[in-house]
Amino acid sequence: MHPTTLMYTSSLLLMFAVLLYPLLVTFTSLPLNNDWASSHAKTAVKSAFLISLAPLSLFLSTGMEAVTSSWTWMVTTTLDITLSFKFDHYSIIFIPIALYVTWSILEFATWYMHSDPLMNRFFKYLLTFLVAMLILVSANNLFQLFIGWEGVGIMSFLLIGWWHGRADANTAALQAVLYNRVGDIGLILGMAWLATNVNSWDIQQMFILSKDLDMTLPLLGLILAATGKSAQFGLHPWLPAAMEGPTPVSALLHSSTMVVAGIFLLIRMSPLMENNQTALTLCLCLGALTTMFTATCALTQNDIKKIVAFSTSSQLGLMMVTIGLNQPQLAFLHICTHAFFKAMLFLCSGSVIHSLNDEQDIRKMGGLHHLAPFTSSCLTVGSLALTGTPFLAGFFSKDAIIEALNTSHVNAWALTLTLIATSFTAIYSLRVIFFVTMGTPRFLPLSPINENNPAVINPLKRLAWGSIFGGLLVMLNINLFKTPVLTMPAELKLAALAVSVLGLLTALELATLTSKQFKVTPLRTPHHFSTSLGFVPAIIHRQIPQLSLLLGQKIASQMVDQTWLEKTGPKAIANATTPLASATSNMQQGLIKTYLTLFLMTLVLVTLISAT
Amino acid sequence: MAGVGFQRWVRTLSKGKISGISGLLPACRSGEILTYFPINIGEIAAAAKKYNIRVEDYKPIADNGEGYGDYPQLPDRSQQDRDPAYQWDHPDLRRNWNEPMHWDFDMFIRNRVDTSPTVVPWSTMCKQLFGFVGFMLFMFYLGDKFPAYQPVGPKQFPYNNLHLERGGSPDVEPEEVKNYEI
Questions:
Q1: b/e string for A170-202 if b means 16 or more Cβ within 10 A?
Q2: Burial, A599: exposed, middle or buried (Cβ in 10 Å; 0-12, 13-18, 19+)?
Q3: Can you give the pLDDT at residue B151?
Q4: pLDDT value of position B17
Q5: Which chain regions cross the lipid bilayer (chain A) (predicted)?
Q6: What pLDDT, on the 0 to 100 scale, is given for residue A293?
Q7: Which of A219, A306, A586, B149 could join A279 via S-S bond, C-beta 3.0 to 4.6 A?
C-alpha cells in the first residue's frame, strides 16, 4: 500500500478506535466514574481531532486522495458490497472540522448537563452519533453511507427525546423519525435503481457506468433523501421541533453535522447530477423556496433556539441552491464554515438559557451585554459571520455562493428569493442580538449568570476562532475545482453585502419601535403566517395523521367484519337473494293474465334463441 | 367437567343472546361485554352508569351496523386540548382515573392528532398555505421562462480579428468582423 493511503486508513482506524473505546468501556458491569463524560468521552473526541489533523496536513501538502476497500461483506453475481472508505477532499476536510466542533460541544455539555443524573448516557449517545456521522462521511459505497445515515437518524431520535417525560419532546422525536423516514424512501429508491441498472453501489463505479443513462429517477430519490434529512421545504417541520432536545444536541446534530448529511450526499453524488438539468433546477428552486420560507418564519419567533433552528434551515436551503448551481464544492465550503458559527450560536444560546434559569424567550432577556460580555460578544461574532460580514468565516463561502448565483444563468425567481432570504438573515440576527444583549434586563435580578466556568468559555473561544479565521484558512488551502467567475459588475459583486446592510438597517429601524409608544399595531395576515410557521405544522400534522389513523382503526375494527359479514358474506347473500325471492313470489298472484304473459314471453325468448 | 361446561354453553347459546366462542367467556354469560344499541330510557340509564357518564351527557354512536353497541359518542377533542394547569390524575395523559375513553383515544393522545383551536380558521390557513405554494410554483415557472443571466457575446479580437497573427497575408485586405461595439 502506498504510504499516504496507509497513513489515511491508519489514522481513520485509530480515530474509530479512540472514539469507540469509551463506548466499549460502558458495556462492562463496572460503574463508571463520575467524570467519565469529561475524562473519557471529551478526551476521546479531542484526541480523535488531533489524530485527524495528520491526514488533513498530508492532503493539504500533497493533494493526494485515496480510496481503500478492506473487507468484502457480500458478493452476489451482480452486486458486491465491501467495506470501503473514501479519503477525498470532502471527507478529509470535513472530519477534522466535525471533530473540532464536537470537542467544543462536549466540553460545553459537561457544564450544561451537569445536573442531569444520566449525563454519562447522554455523552454515550453523542459519541455513537459521532461515529455514525464519520461512517457516513467516509463511506465509499451507498450501503455504508446508509448505515451511517440510519445511525444518525436513530441517535437524533434518542437525543431529541432525551427528556422523554415531556410529551412535547416525544412528539418532536417522533416527528424527526417520521420525516427522516419519508426521506429514506427516496434514498432506498435511488439505491434500488442504481443496484438494478448500474449493478453497483460503489461511488467510482456508479459514476463511470451511468454516463449514458437517464439518471432522473435515482436523482429524484436522492433529492428526496436530502429534503428529509436536511429539512428542505415540505419535510422541514421536524427541525424547529427538534429544539425540544438539550442545547448540545441542537448544536451538534441540528446545525453542524446531521442536517448537512443530506447536502453531503448530494455533494458526493454531484457528478451524477452535473448533466441532469431537471435535478439541478429542482435543487435550485427547492433550496430557494426553503431559504426564503424558513427565513420568513424566523423573523417572528420568540424562542431563541427556534430562531437559530430556522436560521440553520435557511442556510441549508442556501446550500441546496448552491448544488442547484452545479457548485458542490461551494456548498461543501458553506457546510464547513456554517458548522463553526452555527454551533457557536447554539452554545451561546445554551449559556444564556442556563444563566437565566432556563428562560428561552427573548422577550424575557436583555442587557446581557453587560452581564455576560463574553457570551454576547460570541453571539455577535457568530451572527456577523452568519450574515456574511466581510472576511469572517461565513463571508468566504456565502459571498462566493451569491456571486456564483448572480453570474449564472438561473431562474430569476430563485435569485430573488435567495437575496431576500439573505436580507432576512440580517434582520433576524439583529433581532436576536437586540433582544438578548442590548437594552435593559427583562428578567429577575437573581439569575445565576455565570461565565466563570472554563467549560463554557473555552468552547466558545475555540469556536470563535473558527468563526473568524475558519473561512480564510479553508479558502487559502484548497483548490477550487470549478473556476469562479471573477469579473462582474460592481452591483453584482456587492449585492450580498448591500442586501445584508439593507436588512440590518430595516431591523435597526424596527428595533427602535420597542422604545417608542405608537398606536396599537393591528394584527396582520403575514404576521400570523410567519408566527404559525406558514401553517404547515397546523395543517399537515393534523390532517394526515387523522386520516390515516382513523382509516386504520375503522378498517381494523369495523370494516373487516362489516365487509366479510354484511357486504360479501352471509348478509350479502341474504340481501342479494331476498329481492329475487320476493319478486318471484310476488309474481305468483293467481291471475291468468300474469301466467299467460309469462308464457308468451318465454315462447318469444325461446323462438329468438333457437332462431340465432 | 367438560361436559358440564358444554351444557352451560349450549344453554346460553339457546337463549339467543350471544353467538360463537365468546359465549365461553364468563363476562359474556353475565352480559357484561356484549352490548346492544340502547333503545329505551332504562337501557340508556344503565349504559350511562356503566360508562361513568351522566345520563344527560350520554349519547350512543349511531347504529349503522358497525358494531359500536352502546359505546358513548364523546366529543372529538384531543388530550392536548385539555387544560395543562388542571391537577389531572395522570398529568402526562391529561386524564382522570376511570374517565370514559373516546373510541379513538389512541389517536387523540398528546403525541398524535391535536384538535386545539388555531389562531386563524382552518379554511384561512389552507387558503394561505396552498396559495403561497401555488404562487411560488407560478413564480418559479415565470422565472424559468425569463431567467437571469449575464450578457455574453461571441469573441471579438483587435487588429482586424488578429489577421496577421493568424498567418494572414499583409497584402490582403481582411474583412471586417464586428460582433459588438465597446
A1: bbbbbbbbebbeebbebbebbbebbbebbbbbb
A2: exposed
A3: 86
A4: 56
A5: 6-27, 48-69, 89-110, 122-139, 145-165, 177-195, 247-267, 279-300, 307-325, 331-353, 374-393, 413-436, 463-482, 494-514, 594-611
A6: 97
A7: A219
> Where along chain A do its domains lie?
3-26+45-516, 540-611
Q: Looking up cell 469573441, which residue turns up?
A: B155
**ipTM exceeds 0.85, yes or no:** yes
- Chain A residues whose CB is inside 8 A of the B149 CB are 408-410
Q: CB-based contacts of A424: which residues, under 8 Å, 6+ apart? A: A292, A295, A296, A298, A299, A314, A503
Show which of residues 420-479 on chain A sit within 8 Å of chain B, judged by CB atoms: none
Contact predicate A282/A324, CB 8 Å: yes
Mean pLDDT of A427-455: 93
> What is the enclosing helix (H) or strand (E) of A370?
helix A368-371
In the prediction, which pLDDT does B174 show? 76
pLDDT at A377: 97
Whether A347 has a pLDDT exceeding 90, the answer reads: yes
Question: What is the b/e burial string over A34-46, where b = at least 16 CB atoms within 10 angstroms of the residue's CB?
Answer: eebbbebbbebbb
pLDDT in tens, A24-43: 988 888 888 878 888 889 99
Residues of B near A (Cβ–Cβ under 8 Å) read 65-68, 92, 104, 106-107, 110-115, 118-120, 125-126, 128-129, 132, 136, 139-140, 142-144, 146-150
Non-local (6+) Cβ contacts of A383 within 8 A are A345, A429, A430, A432, A433
What are residue B148's DSSP bridge partners?
A410
Q: Which of B64, B81, B90, B129 to mutate to test the interface with A (most CBs of A within 10 A)?
A: B129
Residue of B107, B129, B148 with shortest CB distance to A536: B129
Q: Does A278 touch chain B (CB under 8 A)?
A: no
- Give CA–CA dist B178/B173, Å, rounded: 15
Alpha-carbon separation of residue A237 from A290, A547, B107 (angstroms): 11, 19, 20
Rounded-to-integer distance, Cα A390 and Cα A397, Å: 11
For residue A465, give every residue at least 6 positions away whose Cβ sits within 8 Å of its Cβ, in sequence order, or none: none
Query: Which chain A positions have a beta carbon within 8 Å of B62's beta carbon?
Result: none
Determine the pLDDT at residue B34: 64
Check A535 against B111: CB less than 8 A apart: no
Q: How far is A175 from chain B (nearest CA, A)?
A: 9
Residues in chain B: 182
User: What chain A residue is nearest to B127 in terms of C-alpha separation?
Assistant: A535
Cell of B25: 367467556
Closest chain B CA to residue A413: B143
**Whose CA is closest to A58, among A94, A11, A15, A100?**
A11
| Rg for chain A, CA atoms, rounded | 30
Q: What is the pLDDT of residues A199-232, one digit of tens each?
A: 999 999 999 999 999 999 999 999 999 999 999 9
Residues of B in contact with A165 (CB under 8 A): 92
Answer yes or no: do A545 and B112 touch at CB < 8 A: yes
Average pLDDT over residues A289-317: 96
pLDDT at A525: 81
Q: What angle do CA A570, A576, A581 make, to 5 degrees?
A: 110
Consecutive 10-residue runs of chain B (182 residues): their mean pLDDT? 63 58 54 74 91 92 85 93 95 93 93 91 94 97 94 79 80 76 68
Tell me, what amino acid is at A340?
A: F
* A158 pLDDT higher than 80: yes
Predicted pLDDT at B5: 59
Question: What is the distance between the terminal CA atoms of chain A, rounded to a whole angstrom?
Answer: 89
How far apart CA A413 and CA B140 sit, in angstroms, is 6
